[in-house]
Amino acid sequence: MLGHIRTAADTVLEEIKSVISVLRDPEEARSTEPAPGVERLQELLAGLRAMGFAVRHRQRGEPRPLPAVVNLAAYRIVQEALTNSHRYGDGDATLDLEYTIDTVSIEVTNRMAVSGGRRPGSGFGFGLLGMQERAAAAHGSIVAGPVDGGLFCVRAELPTDERAVNRLNRHAPQLPVHPPVALRDM
Asked: Hey, what CATH topology would domain 35-171 get?
């Protein structure tokens, strides 16, 4: 009996997560293409460069396949951090991607624009919150904020061990009352 209740509850949670993902990003939910991941970062960078946004990309460590949730989270965090750099920064950014034994680390840094950097019509979105949610979904951590030298920095660290991510997904609450990571001034 208890097993049936647990299975039903798990099914309902999966359905709720699916509905929330459609509400948060309807284009992504409708897409029939595979979800983007770090293997598509060069396409993202090329698109930004074509718009005149200078992005320096440095990579350390040996790239390897990532768990799906981590791969998507990494791509979306980079995408949002670079979008914010373009909107609010002074015209260029640096992306550092580092693979270690059990993590992939992301750091996006840009010089903050003196005028505040907001481009007309760019709106007030949920970019920082979205990055926080992506990192939490992958059981990672993220911090974002101004750093010395007039820079703004986003740093994320995501686990890369498939077994650990799956184990955490099975035992962690899916909709935490208080997210386990926080965006804060660095």
From this structure: Heat Shock Protein 90 (3.30.565)
